[in-house]
Amino acid sequence: MENRILARLGGEADLVWLLTLLSVLPVNTYTLEEWNEALSCILGRRVFCPSYRTLFDYLHRAVLGLQ
Fold first, then answer.
1. DSSP labels for 38-62?
2. Residue 60, Ramachandran bin (φ over 0: left; ψ between -120 and 50: alpha; else beta)
3. What's the pTM value of the predicted model, to 2 decimals?
4. Residue 34 buriedness (CB in 10 A; 0-12 / 13-18 / 19+)
5. Of the candidates 20, 21, 51, the residue with the CA atom closest to the CA atom of residue 36
6. What superkingdom heads the lineage (predicted)?
7. In this structure, how many other beta carbons lie within 10 angstroms of the beta carbon of residue 21?
8. What is the phi-psi region of residue 11: left when phi exceeds 0, alpha when psi lies from -120 to 50, beta otherwise?
9. Neighbour count for residue 16 (Cβ, 10 Å)
10. DSSP for 2-39?
11. For residue 56, how many other CB atoms are within 10 A of its CB?
12. Residue 66's CB: how many other CB atoms inside 10 A?
């Protein structure tokens, strides 16, 4: 099954776009599992964030290059 977040972003899938979507969409638009899968695909390694808050913080730090 294709990840709906990555499909929505198409060829623009990167950390900045993930953070933008997470910031502007209602929190329940996509499941936490879908966010973790999209982030893992973009980073090329398995990432697990247990909450939306953790996911937001992780993405924010990754965009700033602090991860």
1. HHHHHHTS----SSHHHHHHHHHHH
2. alpha
3. 0.90
4. middle
5. 51
6. Bacteria
7. 17
8. alpha
9. 11
10. --HHHHHHGGG-SHHHHHHHHHHS-TTSS-HHHHHHHH
11. 16
12. 8
Which residue type does 33 have? E
Question: Please, are residues 42 and 13 in contact by the beta-carbon 8 Å criterion?
Answer: yes
Could you tell me the two tokens for 18?
A: 């993930």
What residue type is 52 in one-letter code?
A: Y
Structure tokens at 28: 């329940």
Report which residue type is found at 62: A
pLDDT tens digit at each of 67 positions of the chain: 689 999 999 888 999 999 999 999 998 899 999 999 999 999 999 999 999 999 999 999 999 987 6
Helices 52-63 and 15-24 cross at an angle (nearest 10°) of 140
